[in-house]
Amino acid sequence: MSAPRRVRRDEPVVDLGVDVGPLHLPAPIVAASGTFGHGDEVARLGDPARLGAVTAKSVSPEPWPGKPAPRLHMTPGGMLNAVGLQGPGVAAWIEHDLPALRATGARVVASIWGTSVDDFARAARMLLPARAELVGLEVNVSCPNVHARDEMFAHDAAATRTVMAAVADAGLGLPLLAKLSPNVTDIVAIARAALEGGADALTLVNTVMALGIDAETRRAVLGAGGGGLSGPAIKPIALRAVYDVTRALPGVPVVGTGGVRSGVDAVEMLLAGASAVGVGTATFLYPRAPYRILDELRDWCAAHGVVRVRDLTGAMEDR
After folding, report:
1. C-alpha to C-alpha distance for 178 and 251, rounded to whole angstroms
2. Which domains does the chain have, with CATH numbers?
C-alpha cells in the first residue's frame, strides 16, 4: 500500500481540497480514465481514498471488443495506444467492477462512451441504479461517431452539444464532465458547446492522434494502424488547451490531463487554469504514480508558501 508521507510538526499545512464545479474533491489529483482499470486492478496497489477521485475506464451500453492487437507501443516521448475502448458494458461494470473499486475507498467518476447519441443516453440511464456509488460522470465524446464516418463527436461543436444534452436529460443528478479531444482547430468552440449542452466541467485533454511505423516490416506498429499518443510529449499541448479554454471561458472547471508525471507538472497544469489534475500514462510505468505526484505537489506548495492548492488555479502570470 502507498502510505501517506509523514508530515513534520513544523511543516506548513497545505489545504489540498479543490472544487471542480459542483464536485468537491479532498485532493487535486485524479486518476485518469483508461489508466486505472475498470475496477480495483490498480487501486489495490495503493490507497485511492487519498486521491481526489478515480475515473473508471470508459464503458458503452453493451460489451465492446476493442481494436486488434498489438494495441500499445512505447515511443521516446510517451506511448501510442489503440485499445479501442474495450469494455464489459455498463451493466457488467456496475455488477462486477464498481463494487470492488468502491471497496478500496475510491471516490468514483464513471466514464461512458458510445457510437451514437442514443448510446450515450442509454449508458447514462443504465447508471441510474448506481448513482449513489458515484461522485461524477465523465462523458467521453472523444470517440468515433459511426453516423458521421467515424468522426469524433468532440471534433464537432454541434455533435458535442447534442451528446451532452442527451446525457443531461437522463437525470442522473451527478456532476457531468465532458472529455474533449486536442485534435481540433478551435477547442474553445467545442468546450463552449459542451457547457451549453449541460457539462458542469471539462476534462482536457484526451490523446493526440498519431502513427508509428516499423521500418523493417513497413507496417504500422499498432494493429489498428493509427492510435493516440499520450505521455510527456503531449503535456505542452494539454497545457495550451487548458490555458486557452480557461482564459476564454473564465470560471470553467477543468481537470487538466496529459503528460503529468511529477508534482511540478501538476503545478504547471494548475497554473494554466486547471482546477484538478489527471494522471494517466505515468501510472503504466509506476502504478503508484498518482500518490507520489500528490505528495510532490504538497511538498512544492509547502516549500513555496502556498497554503491552499486551489490558489494555484489560473495563477500563471502573463507576460
Report:
1. 16
2. 18-67+86-212+229-312 (3.20.20.70)
